[in-house]
Each structure stands twice: as C-alpha cells, then as structure tokens.
Amino acid sequence: MIPSQILQAPSRLGRDSQRLVLSNAREIGSVIIQMGAQARRELLVQDPLLEPALYEQAPFIQAVRRLVLSRLALCVRVLVFDPKTVNRRSPRLVELARRLSSRIAIQRVADEDQERLDAFLVVDTVGYIHRQWSERMQAVADYSDRLRARRLTAEFERLWERSAPDNELRRLFL
Question: Residue 46: left if φ>0, alpha if ψ -120 to 50, beta else—which one?
Fold first, then answer.
C-alpha cells in the first residue's frame, strides 16, 4: 500500500495499479474527481448518505455530466440509505439525476441491507475507492484492480436488485 501523498501525478484509470491509502476527505475527494473524470462507461456509488464533501464537488458533478451526456443509456447508478437526507445534503447530484433520469439513477437500499457499514465507488469495473466505515474519511483506492473492482461491482449489483426508487428523489411536476 502506498500513502496517497507520495503520488505526484494523477494515476490513469485501467493502467496504473497500486493500492492507495487515503486518510482524509480531501484525498478521497481528489481521487473521486480524478477517477470520475476518466470514466468512459459507468460509475457505481454506494454511500449511505452520499457524502457531500465527496460527491457534491463541482469537478465531480461536471465529470458525471460529461459521462452521462456521452452515453445513451443508464451509466451512473447510486445507492443510498436515507433519500430525504441525500436530497437535502447533495442537491446538485440529485438535481442532475432528476434532469437526466434515463442516464442517472439513485435508489434506496433495501431495509435488510442497511446494516452495511462501508461505502464505495467503482469506475468502469476497473478502478475503485472503498471506505470500510462510511462515517470515516479513510479509504483505499486503486485505479486498476479489476478483480477487486469486479467484486465490488457484483456486490453493488446484488444491492441494486433489492433496492427501489424513492419518491423523495423524484421530480414532482405540478
């Protein structure tokens, strides 16, 4: 494992494989932005409250917008525990999902899965960021660990199948 402060240049998704240890929100957020900007196919996010310090950053929102506008199908999926809190704390990402609902989906994790303690982001089934404890700003990440990214993707798919859309995150037309 390599502490993230040792790295001088951004890593390349799918090419640079080294496990990074991220020890604060700034480091995690920086890697989220870098990976998000390099996404070409898919972003999967599982974060109980969709931590705004990480996912409400303007460069990340721009990266998501760029990705979804380049794809014709659903390419960003997000799982959360508390849609009401997410709606209040992460308005830019929620609003983007409302405007581009055929390409971004945010769903509520099933009650039986809300015992999970972790949070993660998987990019193009090749790179990932994993926080073992979602309430802590400590994570491990790798820009090119296909095996770990596939495992997290499989876990995400299992959670997604049991999740459901929530009215709190849908646009209301009056």
Answer: beta
| 81-140 residue pLDDT tens | 999 999 888 899 999 999 999 999 999 999 999 999 999 999 999 999 999 999 899 999
Strand partners, 46: 79, 120
State the DSSP string of 35-47. Answer: HHHH-SS-EEEE-
In whole angstroms, give the CA distance from residue 56 to residue 67.
16
| Domain boundaries 17-166, CATH class | alpha beta
Indicate the burial class of 25 (C-beta count within 10 angstroms; 0-12, 13-18, 19 or more): middle
Neighbours of 62 (CB within 10 A): 14
pLDDT of the residue at 14: 85
Q: Where are the domains of the chain?
A: 17-166
3-state secondary structure of 119: strand
Single-letter amino acid, residue 161: E
Contact 125, 147 (CB under 8 A): no
Three-class HEC string of 48-110: CCCCHHHHCCHHHHHHHHHHHHHCCCCCEEEEECCHHHHHHHCHHHHHHHHHCCCCEEEEECC
Tell how far CA 160 is from the center of its chain: 13
